[in-house]
Structure formats: C-alpha cells, structure tokens
C-alpha cells in the first residue's frame, strides 16, 4: 500500500501523486517513500489524486492498482534502517506510469476513506499485534536472563527491584493485550471503534518500546549485544510508534473523537 510521500506522511490528504485520465487509462506521476515490499511486490495499491477539483481534500483521492513491471515504475530499496531490517522498505517513483482505468479500486474519490478502513485492521494486526509479540518476546528473554544471572550471592531474580521491574513489564503488557483483543473483537464483529483502535495502537506500541528497553536494562551490558536479541526487540518496537499512524496522530484521533472535533 503506497500512500506516504516525501512531503506528506501523517497528513495523508495532502499527497500530490496524480492519476490523470487518458482514454481508457490513467497516467500516474509522482513519488512515494517508505513503501513496504515495493522492490519485491508484483502489485501496489497506490493512493493518487484523481479529483483535484473536489472542494474537500479528502474527496480528491483514489486507490489504483499498479503492476510493478509497468514502464516508468522505479523502486529503490532504502538501506541503513534502525528497525525491521528484514522487511523491504523502498522509495518509489512513478514516471508517467500508464495503467488501465479498470485498475481503479472501487470508485473515484474514496481513496482516503478506503485507507482509513484499511488502517482499522492494519493498526491492530501490523501495529498492536506486532507490539504484543515483541513485548512478550522481550519479557520472556528478561525473565530467563534474571533467573540465571548470579549477583550479590543469589540471582538477579531474587532482588526486589528486579521483581518490581518484571511485574511492571508484565502488567503493562497484559493491559495492552486486553486493549488489543477488545478493539479487534469490535472489528471482527463489524463495528470498528476508531478511538479504541487508536488507543490500542498507541498504547501497545509505546508499551513495547518500554518493555524492550527494560529488557535491555535487565541484561546489563549483554543487552546491547545483538546475540542476546533484546536490542533487536527494542529496534523493532521503535518503528511501531511511527508507521500505520504515529502515536501522536493516534492521540489526535482519540482526542477528536472524545471531544467531538473541538
Ligand atoms: C519501516 C517503515 C515502513 C513503512 N511502510 C509504509 C508503507 O508500506 N506504505 C506507506 O504508505 N507508508 C509506509 N510507511 C510510512 C509511515 O506510514 C510514515 O512514516 C508515517 O505515517 C509518518 O509520516 P512521516 O514519516 O512523513 O512523518 P511526519 O508526518 O512528518 O511526522 C513527523 C512527526 O510529527 C508528528 N505529527 C505530524 N502530524 C501531527 C499532528 N497533526 N499532531 C501531532 N503530531 C503530528 C508525528 O507524530 C511525528 O512525530 C512506513 C514507514 C516506515 C518507517
């Protein structure tokens, strides 16, 4: 799914990639950034401006399928990422890419709303779900380490401060898991609660960063060595606070919902 552009990330409605009608085709021009799987995928769902004359920015956008072997499609892999290094992330340029008008998803002008619907699931599956798994992995590693590591005549696990840290990590993890399950149950039942989904995304992703951070701390110096794995949990948790909607944007959404847009 390609929505983000160099000059429009959180502000999705301000994208500028255009799809202009030409006979039975659209001609797509523009660029996208941070697009997952763009150098290896066969198809991309591309958010484009098709109706620039619409009074509301949100009604100007459409989703169009682009086959990545079409002339004018160029994807360049981004290197040197902090997080999810196993996942392909790319910059994409569309140089007058011609696609048939039948590649339009649904109807014109609904692209923004389709993306928001997609986020109802993506924020739970690709955001909160990953956060819970990452935090659980970090907690498991921390528990295993403090039970084995000897210090002050016993194990780290026998120290009250360490027990308190483990208790806090486990508690915020379980709180996040419950929030995710509640939000996901609503989506599965067909009544997505946008504010609850945003709460689950923000809370679980921030929680995963905190739990992974404490897991590193409990490993002491070993925590920064890649072979102990907890450093990679922290690196991968960090990006969860950014993609599929940053935590700040999630809070804006929650606030607007509770305050009625005031
Ligand atoms: C590894 C990775 C994979 C990605 N995969 C995809 C993908 O497949 N497809 C895709 O389309 N995009 C993808 N993205 C892009 C991602 O969705 C954006 O990075 C994200 O939406 C933030 O946009 P931005 O980077 O332009 O930051 P900006 O929007 O510039 O935000 C910068 C900072 O300002 C804050 N901010 C912005 N607006 C507000 C506001 N109204 N109120 C308060 N704070 C605000 C943000 O919270 C953030 O802290 C990916 C990103 C990464 C890192």
List keywords for this structure.
262 residues, two-stranded antiparallel ribbon, 5 helices, binds flavin-adenine dinucleotide
Provide a descriptive summary of the structure in words.
There is one protein chain. The mean pLDDT is 97. 44% of the residues lie in helices and 20% in strands. The two termini are 31 Å apart. The chain is elongated and about 80 Å long. Strand 1 and strand 2 form a beta hairpin. The strands form three sheets. The chain has a four-stranded antiparallel β-sheet, with no helix packed on it. A two-stranded antiparallel sheet has the order 3-4. The protein is built from five helices and eight strands. By secondary structure, the protein is of the alpha+beta class. The chain binds flavin-adenine dinucleotide. The site of flavin-adenine dinucleotide has 18 residues, from strand 2 and helix 5.
């Amino acid at each position: 799914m390609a929505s983000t552009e160099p000059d429009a990330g959180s502000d999705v409605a301000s994208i500028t990639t255009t799809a202009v009608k030409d006979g039975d085709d659209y001609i797509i021009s523009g660029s996208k950034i941070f697009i997952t799987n763009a150098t290896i995928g066969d198809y991309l769902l591309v958010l484009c401006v098709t109706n620039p004359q619409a009074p509301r920015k949100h009604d100007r956008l459409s989703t169009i399928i682009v086959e990545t072997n079409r002339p004018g499609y160029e994807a360049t892999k981004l290197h040197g990422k902090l997080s999810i290094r196993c996942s392909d992330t790319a910059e994409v340029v569309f140089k007058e890419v011609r696609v048939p008008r039948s590649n339009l998803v649904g109807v014109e002008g609904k692209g923004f709303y389709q993306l928001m619907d997609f986020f109802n699931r993506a924020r739970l599956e690709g955001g909160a779900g990953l956060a819970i798994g990452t935090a659980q992995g970090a907690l498991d590693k921390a528990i295993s380490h403090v039970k084995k590591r000897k210090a002050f005549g016993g194990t780290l696990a026998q120290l009250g401060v360490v027990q308190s840290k483990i208790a806090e990590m486990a508690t915020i993890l379980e709180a996040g898991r419950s929030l995710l399950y509640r939000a996901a149950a609503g989506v599965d039942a067909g009544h997505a609660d946008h504010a609850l989904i945003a709460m689950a995304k923000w809370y679980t992703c921030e929680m995963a960063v905190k739990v992974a951070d404490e897991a590193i701390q409990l490993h002491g110096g070993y925590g920064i060595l890649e072979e102990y794995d907890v450093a990679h949990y922290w690196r991968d948790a960090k990006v969860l606070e950014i993609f599929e909607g940053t935590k700040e944007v999630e809070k804006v959404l929650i606030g607007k919902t509770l305050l009625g847009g005031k």
